[in-house]
Structures are given as structure tokens and as C-alpha cells.
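User: C-alpha cells for Transporter, please.
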Amino acid sequence: MQRKKQQWSSKIGFILSSAGAAIGLGAIWKFPYMTGMNGGGAFFLLFIAFTVIIGLPILIAEFVVGRGAGEEAVRAYQSLAPKGITKYIGHWGVVGAFLLLSFYSVVGGWVLIYSALSIPGFIIQNGANYPELFGTITGSPWITILGLALFLLINIIVVSFGIQDGIEKASKILMPLLFIFFIVLVIRAVTFEGAIEGIRFFLEPDFSKLNAENVLYALGQSFFSLAVGISVMVTYSSYLGKDVSLPASAGSVSLMNIFVSLLAGLAIFPVVFAFGLEPAEGPGLLFIVLPEAFASMPFGELFLSMFLLLFLFAVLTSSFSMLEIITAAFSNKHNRSRKKVATITGILVFIAGIPAALSSSTLANFKIFDKTVFDATDFLVSNIMLPAGCLFIALFIGFKMDRQLVKQEFTAGNNLGNSLFTTWFQIIRWLVPVTIVIVFLTTLGII
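Assistant: Done. Predicted C-alpha cells:
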């Protein structure tokens, strides 16, 4: 029996859900520590440039593929180009989403644990040693695995309810709260004495600090934070009606992503510098540095709880999209229950995520190319699979997909002229692939 096709109930539901998919660990956890480790303002400027010039056109391209096919990622490419290797681009996305979710959920588990511990009076009144606390949590096999399991359980429950009743309903509540909480935190952060140094570090570019590796990381960060390259947005846009403008929706998502990244930097770096802390702390920046700073604030317990709750919201809305692309692919292909597929997928992601969860404890000495399982998975997905996926999608749009259908989807729901379509199409066809290849070759030292 044919099941009713999933649909977004409104344009705003689609945009907020897409923004939720994009704004998560990338903007709030990874962006600040990557910026702190890779040149501050120069990295931020590169990130914005890559997001606008490369990431936004790719986001539009994923929207075009998804709505043009009216299918989730795997079937979309197969239906639009049934012959040739390009029909496997959707499979690349599903594998990428699976790997990304496996280590993403580990951090999601950390956030869940910290959110519980941040209940006013629990951590701060006990005078916790934050580096030691972070080490205790990430270094405990049972705590990290429990956090991983609980985080994935929440994802399974929400995704099981489908688009309107699950992801869209959650995003309509969580995304506005995210912006409200962040603005409050920024206002508090920039009022500290000495905060101006943090603002300068974040907003004044010093290009002498950049190298080829920093440029690759900035490119990967722009893709990671927009959730492009693994066809998540192909699946999301397949649920969209023809009356919605894809360029306008993509522009809204990109602007929200840049805005949240800006807010993240303004919430974190002023506090870091005001308290004489280290901006290049790495993945533990949020979990070590900020609790230390919040503990010294008036109403610090409240601000810490608000920040971690905000962080949890963002991580969840983003992880929903990763589980959705896998769930949609298998539930549609085999005509199986969404709830059953989401549950099985969640269990498989849990098993795959265990090595990453144990990277700071039992498997701390196990290295892959001198990286822990967690770091190796992060590097593989962020700096190889996402850029490569974006390259595949750009080539698919530019040379494989029917150009009339591409134009039809680009112009549907808007009054944009032919010149804007032509400009975007040429960017996708030539500028995006050339830029990605040049960054890769430069990083490898070939050019």
C-alpha cells in the first residue's frame, strides 16, 4: 500500500527546519574552536567568503535536486540520471550522514550530560574543576556511551513522528528560542571588562596566521555548518511545494547560519579574553572555558544553563536531519515503517559511534593516521567527504541534470530573472568545482 508522501506544512517550517539542520555543532561548537585555532578574524572572513560564494550556491543546488526529483537523496539522483556513476551521489550522502551522526552524537551526549549537570546549584556551587570535569565525563566509557544512547533515543523519537509532527514542530519551537537565548548571552558577554580584545581577535583579520591547511578547514567548516555535501538538503527539499522560492530559502538559511556563527563568536571570545583564558582550547572550548567564565559571573549558573540548553537545541535540530536522510532512504526504498527504520538506524549509529565515544578513554591510544577515532571520523567527513560531495553535486547540476528542469526549479515561486539563474548556474558549473579542486591540491602540496 502506498503511504502518504511527507510534506512541510509551511514555508517557514521548511526554512526553520533547514536552518536547524545547518545550525548545530558546526556553528556553536566547532566554529568557535576552529576559529580560535586557525587565525581568529582571518578564518572567520574566509568562512563567510566560502559560505556565500561556494556554500550558498551548493545549498540552492541541493534544493533544486530534491524538489526537482520529488524524492529523498538516494532515489533523487537515480530518478534524474538513472545511467552513469552520478546515480550514486545519494549513497555517498547517506554514508556521510551515517558517519557524521556517529561522532556528532558523541558530542550530543556530552551536551546532554552537561545540560543535566548545569542545573543551577549543581556544578557551580560545588566549585567544580572544569578541565577535570570535562576529562572525567569524556574519559568515562560508561558516561559517554550513556550520553550517546540517550541522545540517539531523542532523535529516534522525533524522526519517527515524521516531517510535520516531528522535525517541523520541534524546529518551530527550538529555532526561535535559539536566537533569543544567544542574543541574551552576547549582550552579557560583550559587557565584560576586557571583552574588546576578544571582539578584536574575532573580527579583525590577520592573514599572516593563515596557511593552506587553514583554508581547507575554512572550506570544510562552511560546508559542515550549512549541512551541504551529504544531500541532507536534497531530502528536506523533496518535501517542499512548488510555490516556495529555493534561492530565497537558501539565502535565509545561509544568512541565519552566518548570523549564529557571528553570535557564537561574540558570545565566546569576549568572555575568553576577559578572563585571560585560551582561545585555542580546541574541542573542549565550550565545556572547559565557558563554564569557568560563567562561574565568575553574576547569575552565572543561570547563564550557563541557558547556554547549554541553547546548545542542546541546536545540536538536536541538526542531528534530526542526518537521521532523516537515512530513515527516508530506507523507509521509501523498502516501503517500511518510518518508526522501525528510524529505530534500527539509531541502533546502528549507536554501535558505530561507540569507538568515537571511547576515544578519550579505552581507545585513547588507538590512532588512525595519528588521530583518535573521533578526530579521524571528524576529519574524514568534514574535510574530505563534504567537499567531495559538494564537488559531485556541482558537477551533477552543471553537466548531468536537465538544464530546463534546473531552471524551472530555480525560478519557481519567485520573480528572479534569467540573468541571476545564468550567474548561479555558471558558478555551480565552473567556480565551485575549480575552487574545491584548487583547495584540495594546495593542501596536498601539489600546487
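User: Anything notable?

Assistant: Residues 11-443 form a domain with the Hydantoin permease fold (CATH 1.10.4160).
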